[in-house]
Design goal:
Jelly Rolls, 188 residues, DNA-binding, homodimer, 4-stranded antiparallel beta sheet, 2 domains
Chain lengths: 188, 188
DNA sequence: GAAAACTCTTAAGCCATCTTAAGAAACGAA
DNA sequence: TTCGTTTCTTAAGATGGCTTAAGAGTTTTC
């Protein structure tokens, strides 16, 4: 678990044993059971989380009372409500474990301390955040360019293992279509 | 122009006169006439641009041959194709001036040099990139939650000056609807 | 191991938004 | 000032994807 984070970081920046130890000392381990909430809508997201194992979803409730899933997080990804975390204001979204999960959490204040202590942590989070922007933009462009059928085929082709781990109606929500319509598309 | 960038930066990080001079020395001024392209689809985006004055749009062509505008940039914003810039790979999008514009450009290599020279530049771009993520997510959530009519009303209310500067069919593209439909909505 | 709670499918009817087309108005270049 | 180009509007017809509803599987819970 410690090593997973270490290896993750070393793919992004150079860090000494000591530098890593200092950084790692800020993290706390969190275990979630299936269906447990990491963050509820309206609460402030206090931590940035590294997913060591498991699967989570970020979603909000739209004006009709339906879930809209905006992202999933699996092993080796980070999860947080970025706006809520950065500005320490109430979140619009909720985060829930879909499988029992193990996370490493660093608080907002501790992350600020880490930035102050070691400039390479600034770089690490610059790189992570850049990757988030690229992923968000690619997703947005893909959705604009493709029909529903192509969105479904696209995700099945690029992330087949991932598709198997989540219920079909959640995939529909993520793909921005109704579960009934996804079911119909699958027939073909 | 130099001062605009200075003031922008000072709102994000602390920087000395010397630190700013070093950083500023990497920038080149670029002037664009109305309709001129800053980046064409398929080319590599070589620079990160700070908009000193003017207005630009980022867009791509979808499978039906229609423009889809993904963002606008005005004074005091940054503009680039982030994926193309970071990975130095061909861009999927184009960037075009909608008004004659003045930009400050820093190349990929020079920005890497600036990161190496001064860790505060890492922090600056971490903060800029975080803001981009927040803006992208807010936009995405807003679009998911609202009908076409509400999207139009929302942008008119929050960015009235901005709406006046762009042709209506481009606003329609940005709002992800046809210009005819937007025209119909405006009647009400 | 039965009841309750999810999950997936099927099908009919509906509606928000698009497409196509064509004319009017505004703008821009020479 | 005029001609061509761009922009905006209007309206009719088409459609992708949604809603509703109901039933059949499948898990979970006690």
């Amino acid at each position: 678990m410690r090593n997973m984070l270490r290896q993750y970081i070393e793919r992004k920046i150079q860090i000494s044993d000591e530098g890593f130890d200092d950084f790692f000392s800020y993290f706390k381990m969190i275990e979630l059971k299936k269906r447990e909430y990491l963050l509820e809508e309206g609460k402030i997201c206090r931590n940035y989380y590294f997913v060591s194992s498991g699967l989570l979803r970020t979603f909000f409730i739209d004006y009709k009372g339906k879930d809209v899933i905006t992202s999933f997080a699996v092993e080796n990804w980070w999860v947080t409500d970025i706006e809520s975390f950065i500005l320490q204001k109430p979140s619009q979204a909720a985060i829930q474990a879909l499988e029992s999960s193990v996370l490493l959490a660093i608080s907002h204040d501790d992350l600020e301390r880490a930035y102050a202590q070691n400039p390479m942590i600034d770089r690490l989070f610059r790189l992570i955040t850049q990757n988030i922007v690229i992923a968000l933009q690619n997703r947005h462009n893909f959705y604009l360019k493709k029909s529903s059928a192509e969105r479904y085929q696209g995700i099945v082709k690029t992330l087949p293992k991932f598709v198997q781990r989540i219920p079909q109606h959640m995939l529909a929500s993520y793909l921005e279509m109704s579960p009934e319509y996804l079911s119909e598309l699958r027939k073909k």
